[in-house]
Amino acid sequence: MEHDYAGPPVASPMDTSSQKTKRWAQWILFAALLFTVPVPFFMLVVGGIVPLTYILYLSLQGLVVAIPKFTAEGFWMLGILWAHVAILGGILYLAAWTVTWLLFKILPDRYAFLFLVCLVAALASTQHIYRMPGHNSSPPANISTIMKSLIN
Q1: Are the C-beta atoms of residues 129 and 143 closer than 8 Å to each other?
Q2: Residue 147 in 3-state DSSP?
């Protein structure tokens, strides 16, 4: 930090580029967590383990359906869906912030960002780690199966 005697400390260009790198890394990791980390999904009886983007998609779709009908049941279900989005999204954001903070604290910026890119690639694996919502114990799914179900 360079000090200007006429006012508060002014950030040097090196500090701001480092901060931008950390901020970009944090948002990239958060987006990767939204699309890849399996989170629990409960809707009274039907449950599954899906990425948060699946729940967000259902929430937005439910909003489009529930507002014109304006029923108490529709808004109750929307409340459950949006509670999932708010709580789990906050937890994933906190996880992304913590991992990014730790990486950039321990490693130099260049290596921390490289490690973060490798972490995102590992999270984007196509292993069958998700359980689609539905009755009768649906089979395990991978990311491409979930994306296909959102498109159809």
Answers
A1: no
A2: helix
Least Cα distance to 57 among 85, 38, 15 occurs for: 85
Per-residue CA distances from 103 to 63, 79, 82, 112 (Å): 38, 36, 31, 5
Task: Please tell me the total number of residues recorded for the chain in this structure.
Answer: 152
What is the chain's pLDDT, residue by residue, as a tens digit (152 residues)? 555 555 555 555 555 767 777 888 888 888 888 887 777 776 655 566 777 887 888 788 878 877 777 777 777 878 888 888 898 889 989 998 998 888 888 888 778 878 887 777 676 665 666 666 655 566 677 677 767 776 77
Backbone angles phi, psi at 110, to 5 degrees: -60, -45
The residues, any chain, with a CB within 8 Å of residue 138's CB and separated by 6 or more, are 48, 131, 132
Quote the CA–CA distance of 89 and 103 in Å, as a whole number.
Answer: 21
Phi–psi pair at 5, nearest 5 degrees: -65, -15
CB-side neighbour CA atoms (13 Å) of 101 = 6
d(Cα 100, Cα 140) in Å, to the nearest integer?
30
H-type helices in 13-125, by residue range?
Answer: 13-36, 52-69, 72-106, 109-123
